[in-house]
Amino acid sequence: MFSIEKILNSFHEWLSSMLNQNMVMLLEMALIAFFAITLFATLGLVLVYLERKVSAFIQIRKGPNRVGPFGIFQTTADTLKLIVKESFMPDSVDKFLYQLAPFIVMITAMLLLAPLPFARGVQIWNINIGVFYVTAVSSLSVIGILMAGWASNNKYSLLGAMRSGAQIVSYELSAGMAILSIIVLTGSLNLQDIIASQENGWWIFKGHIPAIVAFVIYIIAVTAETNRAPFDLAEAESELTGGFHTEYAGMRFALFFLAEYINIFIVCAIGATLFFGGWMPFHIGNWEAFNHVMDFIPSSIWFFGKTFFLIILIMWFRWTFPRLRVDQLLNLEWKYLLPISMLNLLVMTLIAIKGWHF
Amino acid sequence: MSFISNYIKEVYGAVSSLLIGMKRTGYYLTHNKEVITEEYPEFRAKMADRFRGEVVMTHDAQNEHACTGCSACELACPNGTIKILNKFDITPEGKKKKAIDSFVYHLELCTMCNLCIVACPTDAIKMSQNFEHSVYDRRLLTKQLNLPGSKLREGVE
Question: Does residue B87 sit in the same domain as residue B128?
Answer without folding.
Answer: yes
